[in-house]
Amino acid sequence: MGAIQGFEIRRSSASLRGSATQLRTLPVVAKYIDTSTCIGCKACEVACQEWNDLPVSQTEQVGTYQTMPSLQASYWNLIQFREVDYQGGVAWLMRKDQCMHCADPGCLAACPAPGAIVQYQNGIVDVDPEKCIGCGLCEPGCPFDVPRYSERTNKMAKCTLCVDRVEVGLEPACVKACPTGCLQFGDKDTLLAYGKHRVTALKEGGFAEAAVYDPPGVGGTSVITVLRHGDHPEWYGLPKDPTVPVAVSLWKRILHPLGFIAMGAALFGTLGHFMTVGPKKPKDTSTTSGGEV
Amino acid sequence: MSDASVPASAHPAAPGPSIMRLAVHREDVAVGDEIVRHRLLSRVIHWVVALFFMVALLTGMPIYSPVFGWMATLFGGLSVCRWLHAWSGIAFSVASAVMVLHWLSDMKLVPHDLKFNLVQYMQFSAAEDPEIGKYNPGQKLFFWTIPLVTLMVLLSGIPLWWPTKFGSTLRQVCIIVHDVGFIMWFVAIVGHVYLGTAAEPGTFRSMTRGTVTKAWARLHHPKWFRDVTGDRKE
Ligand code: HEM
Ligand code: SF4
Predict the structure, then answer these.
(1) B211-213 and B34-36 beta bridge pairing
(2) CATH number for the domain including B56?
């Protein structure tokens, strides 16, 4: 089956390897978010709901401009608003919360259904609802608390980076809608270079700690974020040094091999026992009563 | 349960039907060359437990690893397993609770049980300890492992069943506990099935027909044999 260039499967949940030949080095795509030029208008939230045809969710007053407390199975893009004490004043911080499209996705590692979560050659992490069994195990696998299990559909759902748009050469819906240009889409290396420029400008503008958030603990992400306070990602609700959760690594990388060893040992141990010790029989077979057991 | 020994049938050539009818309600009784070991109720409980266990095992293993994905085909796919695994796990837990209560009095540990050495026992060469009663200490150990591991797997399974009701951290812990429990189950059951079939011939019929031969009883459970038959010579 010929996949669209860049959409060969690099990694697939509960599978040994993907279908990508990896003969060509194809660019990894990324979404660039500049929190310093985000005005919190939520055009991206609406565009996401519209394009993905997601049912309307009830908004919830949380004391800020935020639409609801956190992402939902039918709400994949949420601008978070935070106020932080900063240099005697207040820093009013906005961040676009969505799937980060990790290069090393914890959700994919945790998922037990073959092919339900896939990572394409271009870095996009996608969900195949047809293969998803609705177990919800991806949720504890994600270091960013992104995937959501829906009781209505009995499936997991999250941002797909608008695969259906990217496939035909369009940018994700949120990027299209953003009025300030704080969202960009393209080749990750180019956007990282662009981010560096922006960080330099922010540093000159007085934000000495400005940085691009592209956490190495998950191999980098295909959603990169420019932060004025790059030394404090937690101010934005981003984990400081996210990794695939220890429990998931312990489970998949240590417990599973140990389990296979234990299962093999039990099966071959009994076989070995039968071949060396053999069945337990009465010592004296000459007994008259009940010689046959 | 009675220690009474029923006299051998007047037609020793064909004691079958009568001992099997006896084995519906009574156990620990000898008829002719056979002893009833498990009455019908015990056998039914055991096989109900084993059935639910096997369903839970075969629907859980494809979720554990794609290596066992073919097992999911038996039930109509992984989505069915996800649903069936939870329900068969609940059914198994209930059935094994019934089994534990049913066998509780037979499985009481006595100080003498501490002398048991499983590794030595598995050599099958040492002379049988004459004080082994109806269940040997290894069987009792297996029996008592059941409520322990069942509880472990049941309690850790509930948060995994209801993803929207429990937090991620709790579920991370539960995954680990659930998997450790599964591995313990697997090893224990392989050992149990092996000992109940190939390793100790004459044992399997105690769970089907309900009876064992006297020779089997004398070999594996000498004290139980003496108690049931009143035979003190051996
Ligand atoms: C297909 C699989 C199984 C086979 C062939 C099997 C066979 C047997 C046999 C022959 C006995 C009688 C032992 C005796 O009278 O000394 C027995 C007893 C017993 N079985 Fe199973 N069994 C199986 C599955 C299970 C499962 C899944 C459980 C529970 C999780 C279980 C729990 C027990 C217990 C507690 C006893 C009494 C204690 C003992 O004999 O160890 N069995 N089984
Ligand atoms: S952010 Fe979460 S859901 Fe998105 S790829 Fe990473 S682990 Fe998966």
Answers:
(1) antiparallel
(2) 1.20.950.20
